[in-house]
Amino acid sequence: MEPAIEIAERGYAVASIVAHKWAAAVPELKDQPGFASTFMPRGRAPEVSELVRFPGHAKTLRKLAEQGPRAYYEGEIAERIAAFSRECGGALTADDLRNYRADWVEPIGKDYRGYTVHEIPPNGQGIAALIALGILEQFDVKELTVDNVESQHLQIEAMKLAFADVYRYVADPRSMEVTPEQMLDPAYLASRARLIDHKRATQFDFGMPKAGGMIYMSVADERGMMVSFIQSNYMGFGSGIVVPDTGISMQNRGCGFSMDPASPNVVEGGKRPFHTIIPAFLTQQVDGQQEAVVSFGVMGGDMQPQGHLQSIVRMLDYGQQPQAACDAPRWKVNRDFTIDIESTLDTRTAEARPHDQVRRRSLHGFRLGPVHLEARSQRSGPRLCGRERQPPRRSGGRLLNVLRG
Q1: Taking the CA of residue 187 as centre, how many other CA atoms within 13 Å lie in the half-sphere pointing to its CB?
Q2: 367 in the same domain as 303
Q3: Of 42, 49, 66, 39, whose CA–CA distance to 14 is shortest?
Q4: Does the pTM exceed 0.85?
């Protein structure tokens, strides 16, 4: 914990895109309890390269280092969180924190072009990437040029079909009407693929499967051990409510619930909402064992499964190296099924989609989240790292390393 404690106490210079996002959040969150004292120490958002210190964060991190992680859920820290929740009219109690237990889940997977893509299961949205890959598998994408209009069209339509099902069915697994296995059934995905019109964009409805703020980190060591990790308070600063003098900013994941009583994702006590954070892996069977080949992830809400899909297609269908897949222009299907495309994407992609509302967006400020990849080309090396380009979709520049195992 020492490096994090040191940075919180010593301070860190704010990057340009972080300063931009920070300032954009202030008008909405400045009156939230505890926000201004923590994130507006000079009465405003910090400027580019301004040094920002977080003494409250450092104090809490030091206490966790000394007492262990349970100190967050029991004892003084938990009591302060619960007391502040009561003070602000919230429903969170000390018992809620004390009784919390993380779920250890089995990833769900989909075979694609000789590899297996692994995602976090529902209540997360990782299944959207697997559905889209299962639909794309019905087409010979590799025979199309990598940035060909037809290739982009098939990927976008597959993603729209996937989201139509995900937004309808994915929720806390205990409340879902169908299982992930049913949503990934090969015959069902083949039937969904047949709905794609090669000549025009389509507005899809959900199907009927047969009944039966954020950071991402990808690391690998010299032995090939990989970790795919993601964390987010959601929507930048989460709820904007900060427990005074602790640096604890309360998350906003309840935003993923529905208020529709007929929805499997309707808000209920003790239930997990639909959420967006989905670290991922790519494996390949070698000598009868599944071995990790790529650890990867994307930041940026519902862009995450779309970034997964586009990166996997580029690497497995078109043989691109991780850095090339990271640098490539992207598109994004929005919640209302309009399409955003980066200004560097072939203009013919937009022109060929007369039945979709398509917006061309510049790279800066466009939430087509950065992709991070740790890839191993064969057992024991070499390994390739792919990271965001310059200019960035987020802070940080380009990184391409070849690490010898």
Answers
A1: 4
A2: yes
A3: 49
A4: no
